[in-house]
Design a protein that fits this description.
- By secondary structure, the chain is an alpha/beta fold.
- The protein contains 3 helices and 3 strands; from the N terminus they run βαβαβα.
- It is globular and about 35 Å long.
């Protein structure tokens, strides 16, 4: 049996001021091109800061609007702690 249809994106480095909006728009466009059930976001190189949390929150919103779940791949302990601190831990699968 085949697994769920997926789209994979990577979020890494330091995002600028408009980074979260650009990243969410890129994710929305990728989801609109396919009929994904799961969006996998590789966050291995993401900086654990408020801008990254905003980008992931926008990503989650864009995915939910399209009936898609978000899974984080390779999150650092620091990023997971920050997501938990901000209340964003539960929506993301790891």
């Amino acid at each position: 049996m085949a697994g769920p249809r997926t789209v994979t994106l990577a979020l890494h480095g330091v995002l600028g001021r408009d980074g979260p909006a650009r990243f969410a728009a890129h994710a929305a466009a990728a989801l609109d091109r396919g009929c994904a059930e799961v969006l996998i976001c590789d966050v291995r190189g993401a900086v654990a800061d408020a801008v990254t949390v905003e980008a992931l929150a926008r990503l989650q919103l864009a995915a939910r609007r399209r009936g898609c779940r978000v899974r984080l791949r390779r999150p650092t302990a620091e990023l997971l702690e920050l997501l938990a601190f901000t209340g964003c831990q539960t929506p993301f699968g790891v």
